[in-house]
Amino acid sequence: MATNRTFTMIKPDAVANGHIGNILAMITNGGFKIVSLKLTQLTVADAQAFYAVHAARPFYGELVEFMSRGPIVAAILEKDNAVEDFRTLIGATNPAEAAEGTIRKAYATSIGENAVHGSDSDENAAIEGAFHFAGREQF
């Protein structure tokens, strides 16, 4: 009886800065149930595949390098209206423009190192979750 699901990653900057616990607390306090969770590291090839949609953009190389430089925390979250509600919780890509009380306002250091990823649609949430978690790892 799944409700709506979304996918998130706590990015290498936030992991390196010791924010995993605080970010997970914000997620659960925001009403999300964590249904899959792992600490892992993307290879360059993994990051290239995950962000292939951005391959033609000028920031793609930096994004791949950043996302493969250290561990991440990948998670599938569940809540009614999960994608939209999570996008609200994480805040604007630019932490200077993010609303108070959002994850990026609290933990992002720049547009590029913005602490967390959040799926932008139900379809992408399913694709991104399946990229990181086998079916037996999704509860």
From TrEMBL:
Secreted in keyword set: no
Keyword Cytoplasm attached: yes
Keywords on record: ATP-binding, Cytoplasm, Kinase, Magnesium, Metal-binding, Nucleotide metabolism, Nucleotide-binding, Phosphoprotein, Transferase
GO biological process: CTP biosynthetic process; GTP biosynthetic process; UTP biosynthetic process
Binding site for ATP: 11, 59, 87, 93, 104, 114
Entry's Gene Ontology molecular function annotations: ATP binding; metal ion binding; nucleoside diphosphate kinase activity
Domain Nucleoside diphosphate kinase-like residues, every copy: 3-137
Record-linked InterPro entries: NDK-like_dom (IPR034907), NDK-like_dom_sf (IPR036850), Nucleoside_diP_kinase (IPR001564)
CDD domains per record: NDPk_I (cd04413)
EC number, as in UniProt: 2.7.4.6
Subcellular location: Cytoplasm
Cofactor: Mg(2+)
Gene Ontology CC annotations of this record: cytoplasm
Active site positions: 117 (pros-phosphohistidine intermediate)
Known catalytic reactions: a 2'-deoxyribonucleoside 5'-diphosphate + ATP = a 2'-deoxyribonucleoside 5'-triphosphate + ADP; a ribonucleoside 5'-diphosphate + ATP = a ribonucleoside 5'-triphosphate + ADP
Family label: Belongs to the NDK family.
HAMAP family in alphabetical order: NDP_kinase
Subunit details: Homotetramer.
Function: Major role in the synthesis of nucleoside triphosphates other than ATP. The ATP gamma phosphate is transferred to the NDP beta phosphate via a ping-pong mechanism, using a phosphorylated active-site intermediate.
Entry protein name: Nucleoside diphosphate kinase
Lineage start: Bacteria, Pseudomonadati, Bacteroidota, Flavobacteriia, Flavobacteriales
